[in-house]
Amino acid sequence: MAIKKALEKEYAKSLYLAGGLTQKEIAERVSVTEKTLAKWIKEGKWDSLKKSLLTTKQNQLSFLYDQLDFLNTDISKRDFKVAVGKEADTIIKITASINRLETETSIGDTVEVARHFIEFVRQQDLELAKTITNLFDVFITAKMK
């Protein structure tokens, strides 16, 4: 039972952070009360987290690529054009971070794609968008198991 509640909470958090839904809509989609959702938002400080997510994955990747480019440019200006010591460690860490960000797909990413797709469909066909929303809810719930 605790695992199910944790998954519901993670799903609610993803929906909340993605934006675009009211707390009532999120509570209904996750099958919890609005009171429970409000408690999770307050305890988890989701409002603060939502603000911190302004640094998107794409912005983080851009920043990491800039750092890597800076290091490589600095190294290329020297006579000995090989990374040494801490430079090599830093390059390895930056490269690993880039790889992780480019290949990792979280529930939050899935919810974000679903939200954009549903919004696109909603402009074309509201009833179809409702059906797709229900299907995505089932899909995301299944992915969390």
Series of H and E elements = HHHHHHHH
Secondary-structure class: mainly alpha
The count of helical stretches stands at 8
Span of the ends, CA to CA: 12 Å
Total strands: 0
| Computed CA radius of gyration, to the nearest angstrom | 20 Å
Strand content: under 5%
Poorly predicted parts: none
Q: Average pLDDT across residues?
A: 85
Shape, principal axes of CA atoms = elongated
Helix content estimate: over 70%
Main beta-sheet annotation: none
Give structural notes.
The chain is mostly helical and 145 residues long. Helix content is 81%, strand content 0%. It contains eight helices and no strands. The chain has helices at residues 2-18, 23-30, 34-44, 46-52, 57-76, 85-103, 107-124, 126-143. Helix 1 (2-18) packs antiparallel against helix 2 and helix 7 (107-124) runs antiparallel to helix 8 (126-143). The longest helix is centred in the middle third of the chain and has 20 residues, at 57-76.
Short description:
The protein is mainly alpha-helical and 145 residues long. It has helices at 2-18, 23-30, 34-44, 46-52, 57-76, 85-103, 107-124, 126-143.
